[in-house]
Amino acid sequence: MPQQVFVKVVGFSDVERHALDAVLRLSRERPTNYLLWAEGATAMPALALLDGQSNEARLEAGKPNGGMKLVWVGEDPPAGVWRTFSRPVSWADVVSAMDEEFASHASVEFDLDLTGVQDEPATLPPDEVPEEPVPRRALIANADLAERLYLRAKLALNHMTIADEAETAAQALELVRARKYMLALVDMGLPGGDGWEFVRRLTKGDAPIPHVIVTQQQPSLGERLRARFAGVDALMRKPPDPERLQELLQKLH
User: Fold this and answer.
1) Contact 138, 183 (CB under 8 A)
2) Contact at 8 Å (CB) between 137 and 180?
3) Predicted confidence (pLDDT) per residue in 24-73, tens digit
4) Whole-Å CA distances, 2 to 22, 91, 230, 238
5) Which helix (H) or strand (E) holds 14?
6) Against a cut of 0.85, is the pTM above it?
7) Contacts of 43 (CB under 8 A, 6+ apart)
């Protein structure tokens, strides 16, 4: 049986709530489930997420909590809070902290930067200098806000917490010119895109992205063949199957 942990949420904007709801829903795929607590529920919350910009949250922090862990998001945390996070909120970091406390078997090692400080390497001849590793950064190219939030949450729960978003093909290509990406999640219906030619620019352009996953409405056999020739990892029907997407993302570890 999965372990269930109820979470009380006080404050936060609609966008932040939407992202948090997506993360909580995705936690149901793991041994430890984080569930949104509501007034009148039989079980008591084990943790409260408090918005530092909300007066109600500050009042909540001053109440007797019966051992409930308090997570404060924002500036000037009151006394007695368990953890504090600044804005913009990285819900992946929040879940990682929750896992440390509540998950008995969950992995909490979030690889935020593979190009961190290392010992100074020995000097190599120019033709033997290894290429820099591609950072674990993802590109989400999708015009739909709800889909982008879902994909960002899915990435975060698979230890890929750095992600940029593009709502058009032009924005996506501009980001690709400026940064290196390990993964791109691309909606074939992206505005301004020229179909598979746009995807090929991601997989085989001047700065090719090693892993590309494409979603499309009702992909045909012919489209699947084009996906193979374009060098993508997978062509998935919209909305993507959560288990299949999970398998693909796990292969990136």
Assistant:
1) yes
2) yes
3) 777 776 678 888 898 888 889 999 999 999 999 999 999 888 889 999 99
4) 18, 21, 40, 28
5) helix 14-26
6) no
7) 4, 6, 37
